[in-house]
Write a structure and sequence with these properties.
about 170 residues, membrane, 4-stranded antiparallel β-sheet, alpha+beta, transmembrane helix, transmembrane, 3-stranded antiparallel β-sheet, elongated
């Protein structure tokens, strides 16, 4: 479904810019046919979408801990990049740094990003939680919001929740 949405969005953006170029070359004649009303609607929606478009900056939702790390604990810091979701259009990945201690894991920084062919989607990373359970496993939970846009206008908002294991118990 993601790839179909991406292709529809890309086709509409190309069609919109083709209409803009045609408008410059043909002028008013562009609207003097049986598709004139549909062209006007698409043109207005495209202009509104372009004017209201705002990219969500991934750095807005990056968690960074204010925990001070002793020099002796620097070798216990672990950085991970884990793919949370892979589909035909894009990937969502978790990026985290945590301090692994004997009885707990302390999140130092964490966020989720989207990469790949992302036309028509906006991603906003949410909370990231890392825990160490009694067996010694390091587990994670990550949330985010995936916005489905058409010509820059939000059509649907999907909440995403991921959980899993980063490190098996020894």
């Amino acid at each position: 479904m993601y790839i179909i949405w991406t292709l529809i969005n890309t086709a509409l953006v190309i069609l919109f810019w083709a209409l803009v170029l045609t408008l410059f070359s043909k002028g008013k004649k562009l609207f003097d046919n049986k598709y004139g009303n549909a062209i006007i609607v698409l043109f207005v929606i495209g202009v509104i979408g372009m004017l209201s478009f705002k990219e969500i900056d991934v750095n807005d939702n990056r968690y960074v801990s204010k925990t001070k790390i002793d020099q002796k604990d620097r070798d216990k810091i672990i950085s991970i990049n884990k793919r949370l979701e892979k589909n035909s259009a894009f990937h969502i990945s978790l990026h985290a740094r945590y301090l692994e201690e004997t009885d707990k894991a302390t999140l130092l920084s964490g966020y989720a990003t989207r990469s790949g062919f992302t036309s028509g989607f906006q991603w906003k990373s949410g909370a990231v939680v890392i825990n160490k359970n009694k067996t010694g496993e390091i587990t994670y939970q990550a949330t985010g919001i995936l916005k489905w846009n058409l010509l820059g206008i939000n059509i649907y908002t999907e909440s995403k929740y991921y959980e899993g294991t980063l490190k098996e118990a020894p």
